Amino acid sequence: MSPEELQLLIAGYVLSDLDPEEAAAFEQLLAANPAIAEDVAQMQNALEVSYASPEVIPPAHLRADILNQISSMAAETARRPASTRPFHRRSFSWRSLVEVAAAGLVVALGVNNYRLSQALQTAQSQTMPQYATTTYVLDATQGDSVASAVVTVDPNNLEATLTAENLPPLPPGQVYVLWTVLQQDAPFTVDEKAAILTGVFQVDSQGSASKTIAVPPVYRVGGVVSRVAVTIEDANAPQRHAGSPIMVTDL
Amino acid sequence: MPAQDCRVNNTYSSEHMHSDSPGNQPRSLLQQTDAELFVSLKAGRTGALGILYDRHSALVYGLALKTLGNPQEAEDLTQDIFVTLWRSSSYDPSRGSLRTFLAIMTRSRAIDRVRSRTAAQHRLEQWHPRRSEDVTANLPFEQVAQGERSQEVQAALAQLSNSQQQILKMAYYEGLSQSEIAKQLAIPLGTVKARARRGLLKLRQTLADVLS
C-alpha cells in the first residue's frame, strides 16, 4: 500500500465510512504500525476544526443525569426477566380481574392507536414528496476563478434555491443567467445550445447571491438534464444565450 | 477553535481493539481507547460511558448548542445521544472513529429537531400570521458557524474543489449518509467516498502547521 493509499484509508476511518474489507486491512496496518494512531488524531482534528462547532462544556449536572438514567434503565432491564417467568395457576383475585381489564384497555387503546397511525399514514402519503431533491454543484470553468454555486432543485414544487459565491459584480446592463442544459435528443423545446433559460440573477458587493428560482418540469424526468451552467448575458436579451459558461456542473 | 490537546490522545491509540490479546496488562478504563471503552460498555460496564462522556460531551454539546441555539434543548439532545450510544449497536468501532459517529448523529438529530420546530411554527402561523422577520430567528445556523472559522481554515477549505467541500459538508455538517449524498448529488457512491477522503486528506495536509 502506497503512503497516499494509507492516508486515504485513514481519512476513511476518520469519516467513519470504511467497508468491512478496508476495516480489516486498517486494523492489520494499525497493529503493525502503532504510529498510525497519531495520523488518525491529526486527521480527526483537521475534520473538526473545519466542520465542527467550537466545543462547549455542558453543565455539570448533565453527566450525573445521564448516568442515573442509564443505571435505572439497566436495572429495569435486569428486572424484566422476572416478569416473564412461567405462568402459575392462581386462585381468583380482584387483582387479576383488574389486570385483565387493564390488558383489555391496552388492547383497545392499541387498536385505536393503530387506526390513528393508519389515518396519519394515509394523510402523509397524500403529501409525500414524489421526486427526490437533487443538488447541482457548479465549478468555475476558468482555473483562476474561485467562483462556486450550488443549485438545489425540488422537482415536487418545481423550485430551486440558488446560492453563488465569489462571482464578480457585473456592470450595468449585464446579468448572470442560470441554464438547464438537456441531453441532445430530449423531447423538450430548447435553444440552439440545447439549453432552457432557468433564472436570472445578480450578486451583491461581496459577490454572493441567494435566491429561489422556478425551474422547468424537465427536472421531473430522469436522465434528461445533462448539466446546469451559468453564463453572463445582456440584461435586455438574456435568452440570446451569447455568453460561454463561466460555471458548470461536472456531471 | 475546539480544544484539541485532550483529543489527540483520547480518540485513538495503538492498542485499538487489542485489549484482549494475551499478554496485555489489564488497564483501567481511563487508559482505554474509545473502541475498547465501547466494547466494555456493550459488555455491561456502564462506567465506560462516564469516560466516553468526559471525552466527547463538549463536542456533542457544542454542536447541539450551535444548531439548536437553546441550552435546555442542547442538554436534552446531549442526553439523548449518550443514552442512544449505550442502548444501540449502530456504532461499529472497526469502521470509523467514535467522535465522527457522535458528531454526525448529533448534527443529524439536531437538524431534525429544528425542522420539526420550524414545521410546528409554520402550522401555528397559518392561524396567527406573524411578520416575516420574526421567522429568521430560527433559520440558517450554517452561516453563523461558517463565519466563525479561522482564516487558515477558510483558506484550506478554499483549496478543495467545490464538490469535495459540498460532500464533506453534507456528510459531517448536515449528517447525511454517503448513499443519501450520492442520491442527492446524482453521482456514484464510490465517487462520493473518494472525494470525501481526498478532500479530508487535502485539508489535513494544508492545515498541518495549524494542527501541530
Q: Would you write up a description of this structure?
A:
The complex is a heterodimer of chains A (251) and B (212). Chain A is of the alpha+beta class. Chain A folds into two domains: 125 residues, no CATH class; 117 residues, Superoxide dismutase, copper/zinc binding domain (Immunoglobulin-like), CATH 2.60.40.200. Chain A has five helices and eight strands; from the N terminus they run αααααββββββββ. Chain A has an eight-stranded antiparallel beta sheet with strand order 5-4-7-8-1-2-3-6, with no helix packed on it. Chain A is elongated and about 75 Å long. Chain B has 212 residues and is an all-alpha fold. Chain B has twelve helices and no strands. In chain B, α2 crosses α3. At the A-B interface, α1, α2, α3, α4 and β1 of A face α1, α3, α4, α5 and α8 of B.
Keywords:
heterodimer; A: 251 residues; Immunoglobulin-like; 8-stranded antiparallel β-sheet; 8 strands; 22% strand; elongated; B: mainly alpha; 12 helices; 69% helix; globular
Short note summarizing the structure:
The complex is a heterodimer of chains A (251) and B (212). With 251 residues, chain A is α+β, with helices and mostly antiparallel strands. Helix content of chain A is 39%, strand content 22%.
When the domains of chain A are counted, the total is: 2
Question: If you compute it from the alpha carbons, what radius of gyration of chain B comes out, rounded to the nearest whole angstrom?
Answer: 19 Å
List the secondary-structure elements of chain B in sequence, H or E.
HHHHHHHHHHHH
Overall geometry of chain A comes to: elongated
Low-confidence stretches of chain A: 83-92, 114-127
Q: Which structural class do you get from the secondary structure elements of chain A? A: alpha+beta
> Secondary-structure element sequence of chain A?
HHHHHEEEEEEEE
Largest sheet of chain B: none
What's the helix count of chain A?
5
Q: Beta-sheet strand percentage of chain B?
A: under 5%
Radius of gyration of chain A equals 30 Å
Q: Largest beta sheet of chain A, briefly? A: 8 strands, antiparallel
SS-based class of chain B: mainly alpha
Compute the number of helices of chain B. Answer: 12
